[in-house]
Design brief:
406 residues, Alkaline Phosphatase, subunit A, Gyrase A, domain 2, 2 domains, 7-stranded mixed beta sheet, globular, binds zinc ion
């Protein structure tokens, strides 16, 4: 059967199909873990399957990219352009976790509607309602694995299924629980036809590629993916965004406090700086990322301001709303008057006084910019004839898995 979702066609699967979004999976994490002999399954897949580098959507944050992967479309279509936004209509700053912000159907809901059994497991609960919007099937988070109910989550007992306790939200175990649950679901007699697994980037925010902490995480992941492969699954692995060190030479966060800068230029609180990285879990990144959007007061001459901002050290690009909407495929009505992207090693803050960096116990690593746009797109099946010069996107994962890898 062929399904049309957001103007793309998808075949229903012949084999159980798993799409994995590894949060914050800068490609170098895989390269280093493979080099260190910690990912034997992936090493074989890279040689015998399909290995592409793809672009994620900008801002390179979790919610926009997870929703792009499950809708097969950019934020201009699905509407989720950050983890957090300024709602102009109500003059409030809100988390973008509510499905009311979603403007497009997900492939998961459409597959379920067509009769496929679908399961979604996410690390953090913040994504669950968006990913499971209007979807019949199993949908739960590792974070709240002990709070499931059949009517709401499509499953009555997750802890019994997985055989592990509820992990801490700030731990590698939270992601391991996702993989463990995925394997258990696939081992059941009535296994899912399609599964979407989404981890958390707690490890990637703390540990650089090739370090023991990172390699141990990827070794764990490799063993679960090997089990899913052995169960006959078609696997597509991608990421929501990359991850880079964001520090000065003294290992302190290299921050441009944009609200403070604009307060100095335009007067206190005249401009409103929004950081779409903001989410309920800020301990490991202090709400600092490489992307900001700014609402300017009426009457400000934008062109000289854009030029002045673009000349600041550490700023990579400053775009007007129209330019950003076009270049990054964003919904113009949900971004500010200008969009500011910082360089690979710098992050953007609001006002220095509004960021509590005391909980950062390792040199800052973060994302959000164009410098974190490159992500892996890997399938455990060989797909012949793919154009390696095509601009592959992480939201091509379901297309490749369902249309080319069965
Ligand atoms: Zn993420």
């Amino acid at each position: 059967m062929i399904l049309n979702v957001n103007n793309r066609n998808y075949a229903t699967p012949k084999h159980p199909t798993v799409v994995v979004c590894v949060d914050g999976c800068e490609p170098d994490y895989l390269a280093q873990a493979v080099a260190h002999g910690r990912m034997p399954w992936l090493k074989r897949v890279l040689a015998e399957g399909t290995a592409l580098i793809a672009d994620c959507v900008i801002p390179s944050f979790t919610n926009p990219n997870n929703l792009s992967i499950v809708t097969g479309a950019p934020p201009s279509v699905h509407g989720i352009c950050g983890n957090y936004l300024y709602d102009v209509a109500t003059d409030t700053e809100v988390m973008m976790n509510d499905p009311k912000w979603l403007r497009a159907p997900t492939l998961l809901a459409t597959l379920a509607e067509a009769g496929a059994s679908v399961a979604v497991v996410t690390a953090k609960d913040k994504l669950r309602k968006l990913l499971g919007h209007q979807m019949t099937g199993i949908c739960f988070s590792a974070e709240k694995a002990d709070e499931v109910a059949l009517a709401e989550h499509g499953i009555a007992d997750v802890l019994g299924l997985v055989g592990k306790p509820v992990p801490s939200v700030y731990s590698a175990d939270l992601s391991e629980f996702v993989f463990a649950a995925g394997v258990k679901l696939m081992q059941q007699a009535k296994r899912p036809d399609v599964m979407y697994l989404s981890t958390t980037d707690y490890v990637q925010h703390k540990h650089a590629p090739g370090t023991d902490g990172a390699d141990a995480f990827y070794a764990m992941m490799d063993s679960y993916l090997g089990q899913l492969d052995a169960l006959g699954c078609v696997i597509a692995l991608t990421a929501d965004h990359g991850m880079n060190a964001k520090t000065a030479m003294d290992a302190q966060p290299d921050v441009i406090y944009l609200q403070d800068v604009l307060d100095g230029w335009l007067g206190a609180s005249k401009a409103r700086v929004i950081l779409p990285i903001t989410d309920p879990y800020v301990v490991h990144h202090g709400a600092l990322g490489s992307f900001a959007t700014v609402y300017l007061p009426a009457g400000v001459d934008q062109a000289p301001l854009v030029k002045r901002l673009a000349a600041q050290r550490g700023i990579e690009s400053v775009l007007t709303r129209a330019e950003a909407a076009e270049r990054f495929e964003l919904p113009a009505d949900r971004i500010g008057d200008i969009v500011v992207v910082s360089e690979r090693s710098t992050v953007i803050g609001t006002a220095a006084a509004r960021h509590d960096l005391s909980a950062l116990d390792a040199p800052l690593r973060s994302h959000g910019g164009v410098s974190e746009q490159r992500v892996p797109l890997i399938l455990n099946r060989k797909i012949d004839g793919l154009d390696m010069n095509h601009r592959w996107r992480n939201f091509d994962a379901f297309d490749l898995a369902l249309n080319h890898a069965q």
